[in-house]
């Protein structure tokens, strides 16, 4: 581990903390306005908290650097890659669920359309509005 814990200047600390607070505030506001669902917001909240942790405790980067054996620039690129991979995975899961829902809805629509066509075919041509089902109910 590097003995020098001064990883960032005070300006960089404040900028990173401000960025983290902005990510958290925007995420919470989007949730409040119902523009972002809570399940999708978890990744953004975790990102904001991670940025805040690094802004408040920059030694965490040195700790990770020692654990992973990477230089700081490579470590930051690695963390960005992990973050983007998590976003892509999350959206892939959402798209997969949506595709399943769409397939089920299309199948249900086809069944309903077939039922509607069958009912229209059973309807008398005189336009009285009574189908075969209405006649059998009044005969009882």
What does this molecule look like?
- By secondary structure, the protein is mostly helical.
- The chain has one domain.
- Helices cover 79% and strands 0% of the residues.
- It contains five helices and no strands.
- The chain has helices at 10-32, 38-56, 59-68, 72-122, 132-139.
Briefly characterize the structure.
The chain is mostly helical and 140 residues long. Helix 1 packs antiparallel against helix 2. It is built from five helices and no strands.
Our estimate of the beta-strand percent is under 5%
SS-based class: mainly alpha
Radius of gyration: 29 Å
Large-scale geometry: elongated
The strand count comes to: 0
Structurally, the number of domains stands at 1
- Major β-sheet annotation: none
Arithmetic mean pLDDT: 85
Q: Element order, helices and strands?
A: HHHHH
Helix content: over 70%
Distance between the termini: 90 Å
Low-confidence stretches: none
Number of helices, counting only DSSP H or I runs of 4 residues or more: 5
Index terms:
140 residues; mainly alpha; 0% strand
List the helices and strands and how they pair.
Blueprint: H1 10-32, H2 38-56, H3 59-68, H4 72-122, H5 132-139
Helix pairs in contact: 1-2
């Amino acid at each position: 581990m590097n003995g020098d814990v001064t990883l960032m200047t005070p300006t960089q600390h404040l900028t990173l903390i401000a960025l983290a607070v902005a990510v958290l505030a925007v995420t919470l506001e989007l949730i409040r306005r119902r523009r972002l669902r809570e399940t999708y917001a978890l990744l953004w909240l975790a990102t904001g908290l991670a940025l805040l942790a690094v802004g408040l405790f920059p030694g965490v980067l040195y700790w990770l650097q020692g654990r992973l054996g990477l230089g700081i620039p490579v470590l930051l690129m690695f963390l960005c890659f992990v973050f983007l991979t998590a976003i892509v995975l999350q959206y892939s899961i959402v798209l997969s669920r949506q595709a399943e829902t769409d397939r089920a809805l299309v199948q249900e629509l086809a069944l309903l359309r077939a039922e509607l066509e069958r009912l229209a075919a059973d309807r008398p041509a005189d336009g009285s509005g009574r189908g075969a089902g209405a006649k059998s109910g009044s005969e009882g």
